[in-house]
């Protein structure tokens, strides 16, 4: 899935904490921000609606997605990717 750029302004202390955490975890600052956002949003909003997981599936090699979307949603809900 493509990424959308976002500019965020941090105070120096927060930036230094982010830089240190990224170095310790051997990852980029951007990846760490994405991870923290995902975790915080999941905590605040609860689990994602499984129906939203179909966003972007059309970019793959599922030629019958439009016709069989209910099948794929049900399979994902069960934790299976049967096609």
Keywords:
83 residues; mainly alpha; 2 domains; 3 helices
Count of domain modules = 2
Poorly predicted tracts of residues:
none
For the termini, the CA-CA separation is: 21 Å
Q: Main sheet, how many strands, which sense, barrel? A: none
Number of helices: 3
| Overall pLDDT score | 83
String of helices and strands? HHH
Q: What is the percentage of strand-forming residues? A: under 5%
Helix-strand makeup class = mainly alpha
Helical proportion? 40-55%
What overall geometry do the principal axes of the alpha carbons give?
elongated
Number of strands: 0
Gyration radius, in Å: 18 Å
How would you describe this protein?
The chain has 83 residues and is mainly α. The chain has two domains: 12-45; 48-83, no CATH class. The protein has helices at residues 12-25, 29-45, 69-77. α1 (12-25) packs across α2. The longest helix has 17 residues, at 29-45. The two termini are 21 Å apart.
Quick recap:
The protein has 83 residues and is mainly alpha-helical.
Task: Describe the secondary structure blueprint for this structure.
Blueprint: H1 12-25, H2 29-45, H3 69-77
Helix pairs in contact: 1-2
């Amino acid at each position: 899935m493509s990424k959308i750029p976002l500019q965020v302004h941090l105070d120096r202390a927060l930036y230094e904490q982010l830089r240190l955490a990224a170095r310790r975890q051997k990852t980029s600052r951007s990846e760490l921000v994405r991870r923290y956002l995902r975790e915080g949003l999941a905590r605040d909003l609860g689990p994602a609606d499984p129906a939203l997981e179909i966003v972007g599936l059309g970019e793959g090699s599922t030629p019958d997605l439009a016709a069989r979307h209910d099948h794929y949603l049900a399979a994902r809900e069960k934790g299976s990717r049967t096609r």
